[in-house]
Amino acid sequence: MKKISVCVPCYNEEKNIETAYQRIKDVLEKMPKYDYEIIFGDNCSTDNSGKLLKGLAEKDHRVKVIINNRNFGPERSSKNIMFSSAGDVVISIPCDMQEPPEMIPQFIEEWEKGNLVVFGQKIKSAEGKIKYNCRKLYYKIIKKFSDTPQYEQVTGFGCIDQCVIKSLKGLNERNMPLRYLIADLGYPVKLIPYTQAVRENGKSSYSVGKYFDFAISSLVETSSVPLHMITIFGFFCAVISLVFGVIYLIYKLIYWDTFSAGVAPVLISVFFLSSVQLMSIGFIGEYIGVILTRVTKRPLVTEKERVNFEEDERSTCPADFAEINK
Fold this sequence. Notes:
Order of helices and strands: EHEHEHEHEHEHHEHHHEH
Shape: elongated
Number of strands: 8
Radius of gyration: 25 Å
Largest sheet: 8 strands, mixed
Structural class: alpha/beta
Oligomer: single chain
CATH class of the largest domain: Alpha Beta
Distance between the termini: 34 Å
């Protein structure tokens, strides 16, 4: 019997956990020819999420729980959950229920046809128009600048064959979203359109600043175009500065006594070039940060506790953390 692993990342989702569990379970129970497990990953929530998840695990042995030592961010936590799965196919779905669990049978049907990766693609969203259009612009920018083909309106909601998950485990890519890794490795993706629902309860932990930071990080992770643009723009500015310098010199030589350059052009040039330099240093710093993350040998996450996992599915924590949290 084939097994389905449903991975549900959580952070302060106490109002959505019970609903998410029930809706996912209702869908899976209607698929009797498959075994299943539901893995909730709590990213060190500050509310009662951990307690509620342990309660579900006590009532249902198919519910597994991973609780992190701290908040490692959604990407690292989500990867750790998926890498801890034992199913033949892995389905990722956020706990906020904006993505419908009722699409799971469609994902599995396409997977059974031989598609190793099946993602949902948003064609509409019940969220605010401003946020949706900003996301739409973000996806277009990533697709335009990326070194590899990317998919618009794809968040990672969908199913991935376990063989693909295993190939991703060996990569030292802690922060890069799985959907970008899959595109980079060239795995074909089957897309299924859907309409994103409004968040049922609570508020998203993502602020405008976090969204902007994620957008910049995604651009840097998927593209080297900004570095080329900086080089080209720097060369362009150097040529313009040289031309203006020659013009000012000629005017000064011809009209030595009457021509006054003034300080305004100098100040404008200094502020403009300083802004370009700061922006360039910022982009270079982002790339250096990505390099540092990749060369630093640290675990994906460290875990405080695992519930309902077998002995051969022990925590990925280093030994000292495992001993501390016994």
